[in-house]
Request: fold
Amino acid sequence: MSFVHQSDLSHTPSGMQRRQVLGGLTGALATAVLSHNAWAQESFPNRPIRVIVPQPPGGGFDFVARTLADKLGQSFKSGLVVENRTGSGTLVGTELAAKAPADGYTVLTGSVSNLVLNVGLFKNLSYDPLKDFEPIGLAAAYSYTLVARKDLPFATLGELVAYAKANPGRLSYASAGNGSGQHVLAAALWHLAGVQITHVPYRGAQPAYADLLGGRVDVFFDLSSTARVHVDAGSLKALAVSASSRLSMHPTVPTLRETGAAALELESWFGFFAPARTPAPELARWRAEFARVAQSPDVMERFEKAGGRPLAVIGEDARALLRRDLERWVPLMRAAGLQPE
Reply:
């Protein structure tokens, strides 16, 4: 009796046929998968895309989102719909985007406020900026300017800090609300400078300006693009900017680091983020189109005219910047004891 080993089957006519059939099936399957991926990428998007803005119309979030959406609509022919989903600061809209289907048809307008500062403010945040989102790209950054009422008897931030050390609690600072960027930046500055300055929160920047201009509060950190109007008019004076270098709109105003008050800097960057697990082809298409739009001259000009610094930080580079700011600001906020309410 002769025995045929299993390994010898490949050399029999039936074994050869089996191998050819299996090879053909494998090749056909691979071709089908590649064709499907190519078709999916070419057909995306085939319905309108939602751009979630976690703040009301008219602010920095909304301006950046609509500027980008208008330009991206030239490439994404199905259209982009900007949705202002507000509530609990930026929490409601950001959580909505985090839980949206990861199919490329929902993106979040993300910033330092909702993806960095909220982590330091809330102990049980409903989303994780690094785990729940895929960065598409960052398009613009805005500095803050520390402005003071025009009759405040200090010419520099150094003089203000010296007075505050000798007179704890005598000076006051406004913010656009507890947990706002204006609040966090100022509180971090006073913490690092070792001074006690009384916080006066308002419901937005406009009421804060009303009391600052009326001399009822002493200083206020606001976005440089907004503060510029009052500084240029001479109704307020600028003491420092939060950027890493001086601003062209305020060339004589020093940075926080230059004043020696604190080794601190913050820019409020803005960009688009997709829900985690968004398919690679859709994510790649998003990043390619975002990079093109962020570097287009007309978009850059719009951001510059609004007092911003144009960016084109894409994909993993955006993730690295997000991680850097989380590592820098979350421990500082917790050390300063900042609370959302």
Notes: The first strand starts at residue 49 and ends at 53. Residues 1-16, 18-23, 28-41 have pLDDT under 50 and may be disordered. DSSP finds twelve helices and ten strands in the chain. Strands lie at 49-53, 80-84, 106-111, 133-149, 172-175, 198-201, 219-223, 236-241, 267-275, 309-314.
